[in-house]
Design brief:
Number of domains: 1
CATH superfamily: Oxidoreductase, molybdopterin-binding domain
Number of helices: 3
Radius of gyration: 17 Å
Order of helices and strands: HEEEHEEHEEEEEE
Distance between the termini: 42 Å
Structural class: mainly beta
Bound molecules: the ligand Nc1nc2c(c(=O)[nH]1)N[C@H]1C(S)=C(S)[C@@H](COP(=O)(O)O)O[C@H]1N2, molybdenum atom
Shape: globular
CATH class: Alpha Beta
Largest sheet: 6 strands, mixed
Helix content: 10-25%
CATH architecture: Alpha-Beta Complex
Number of strands: 11
């Protein structure tokens, strides 16, 4: 018997039920960006939540770091078919920011320093399902992976997790973002293989 097979079987068993259809597991962490990596020094970074009425709230880097921090360990799934198990992040729940505004909006658009946008139902970024993350695996998040800070929304395909995020805009109407306007699915549930418009 191949000496690698007990370990392989062990891993397969540990991840049983955690690999969505059409995905393969990887231990590497690929970088996927539509354009060049922006460099945003933390002393010029801010995060803004804008309500549908024009009300808004902003946090500087130091103010964000002083908020309650969480350490989610989650599986992530990229629409290019890799999945990575047990990724360990540190950051602030989006509930903390969104809780500062009154809103009757049903959607948010995440906006990034590189111009990237992605749309989400408000209920998919509340109740402990989404974070603004500034650390990965115990280290400051690298620029290629969205540092200084990115969204982490593990229950949807990873294109919804905007890197270099600078804010969230609340909107009453659903407004497709960068990839959603270019053929990716509006919602992006990996368990239902919602990769493209007609999936
Ligand atoms: N601002 C911004 N966020 C982004 C992207 C991007 O091009 N710009 N790419 C998205 C896509 S398509 C994926 S799969 C993930 C990739 O994250 P990673 O490079 O850390 O693996 O980031 C998403 N967030
Ligand atoms: Mo992607």
């Amino acid at each position: 018997m191949n000496s690698l097979s007990p370990g392989f079987r062990g891993k397969t068993h540990a991840f049983a039920g955690r690999l969505p259809p059409g995905q393969y597991p990887t231990e590497s962490f690929p970088v996927l960006s539509a354009g060049p990596t922006p460099q945003i020094p933390t002393d010029r970074w801010s995060f803004t939540v804008a309500g549908e009425t024009g009300e808004h709230r902003s946090w500087t880097w130091d103010q964000m770091m002083a908020l309650p921090q969480e350490e989610p360990t989650v599986d992530i799934h990229c629409v290019t078919r890799w999945s990575k198990f047990d990724t360990r992040w540190r950051g602030v729940s989006l509930d903390v920011f969104l809780g500062e505004l009154e809103t009757s909006a049903d959607f948010v658009v995440a906006q990034s320093y590189d111009g990237y946008t992605t749309n989400l139902p408000l209920e998919d970024v509340t109740d402990g399902k989404a974070w603004l993350a500034h650390s990965f695996d115990g280290y400051a998040l690298s620029p290629d992976h969205g540092g200084p800070a990115r969204l982490v929304i593990p229950h949807l395909y990873f294109w919804k997790s905007a890197k270099w995020v600078k804010g969230l805009r609340l909107t009453p109407d659903n407004e497709p973002g960068f990839w959603e306007s270019a053929g990716y699915h509006d919602y992006g549930d990996p368990w239902r293989e919602q990769r493209h418009w007609n999936d």
